[in-house]
Amino acid sequence: MQRIWSELEQRRDVRVIVLTGDGERAFCVGADMKNPSGSPTLKGVDYWAAARPGGFGGIALRETLNIPVIARVNGYALGGGFEMVLGCDIVVACDDASFGLPEPLVGRMPLDGGMTLLQRQIPHRIAMGMLLTGQRISAKRALEIGLVNEVVPRAELDAAVTRWVDQILACAPLSVQAIKQVVRATGSMPAAQAQALRPAGAGGGAAVRRRRRRGARLPGEAQAAVEGALNSTPHTPREPTVSDRPRLGHLQPARQLARPRWLRCSIRAARRPA
User: Fold this and answer.
1) Which 3 state secondary structure label does DSSP give 10?
2) Crossing angle of helices 124-133 and 114-121, rounded to 10°
3) What's the confidence (pLDDT) of residue 196?
């Protein structure tokens, strides 16, 4: 999937991505626990030490994708599948979906984003309860603790996802991308420190200039996104029309993607209207 995410990062016509499982049973249930690397030689500590850009599925820990990603969770999201969900921006799940990191039950660890992301997205003790027991939670519980934005009956899943897509498409694309980058770049900072960050070269008083000299500025990706948004022309909100709908489709059929069976996830991309 790395190739697909890298391709999407270069696309200027894609405004929102929907990540979903192939079929109705599972979103993604992760790797083969007996051999998570898929390699006969890369195991244990060697697997942990190996470079895995972007975390599981190339999205769990990805920091270079400006485009909003919606997880359409249509079933089990376990192990690496749950890590992929944690790497998405918005999560919409059917009411019979479930989430969990079962690695400790089989003597493994959630090395591709689970340990580092879960503790940052929900209260500490709830995260530790899931991490230390391999506990699986329902979609309803995931909504209660803030892991999911919306839970709907399976028959209404596509309609719910489309509503979220429409709301994103109604916004200025450069603003949306800049907001995602700034949130990602400043998420681990105290609010005051994050607020003090400015793009390099931005104006300001003496205090701002002193902070800039000490290195208090946005990282490159976030800076570029912010400059693009603030220098763009004003945006007029627009409700997506029926003519936009055909542009919401599979970027590439899942069956054509060269990757292991346990990573059978479809990617849908909504493009800018012509």
Assistant:
1) helix
2) 150
3) 80
Same domain, 78 and 203: no
Look up the pTM and report it.
0.76
61 and 134 both lie in a single domain: yes
Report the C-alpha gap between 210 and 223 in whole angstroms: 18
Active site amino acids:
83, 103
Same structural domain, 67 and 128: yes
Q: Are 272 and 13 in contact (CB under 8 A)?
A: yes
User: What residues contact 44, with CB distance under 8 A and at least 6 apart?
Assistant: none
The confidence band for 145, taking pLDDT boundaries of 50, 70 and 90, is very high
Residue 115 DSSP SS3: helix
Question: 164 and 180: one domain?
Answer: no
- Note the pLDDT of residue 111: 85
Alpha-carbon gap, residue 196 to 163, rounded angstroms: 34
Domain shared by 246 and 127, yes or no: yes
Helix (H, G, I), strand (E, B) or coil at 149: coil
Q: Report the pLDDT averaged over residues 214-242.
A: 61
Question: Above 90 in pLDDT, residue 83?
Answer: yes
Indicate if 155 and 189 belong to the same structural domain. no
pLDDT winner (highest mean) among 32-46, 77-91, 104-118, 219-233: 77-91
Q: Are residues 184 and 264 in the same domain?
A: no
Q: How many domains does the chain have?
A: 2
Report d(CA 164, CA 70) in Å as an integer: 8
Buried b or exposed e, range 55-85, using 16+ CB within 10 angstroms: bbbbbbbbeebbbbbbbbbbbbbbbbbbbbb
Model confidence at 118: pLDDT above 90: yes
Expressed as residue numbers, the domain containing 209 is 173-230
Residues 267 and 220 in one domain: no
Determine the Cα–Cα distance for residues 35 and 11; give it in Å rounded to an integer: 34
- Lowest pLDDT segment from 26-35, 82-91, 260-269: 260-269
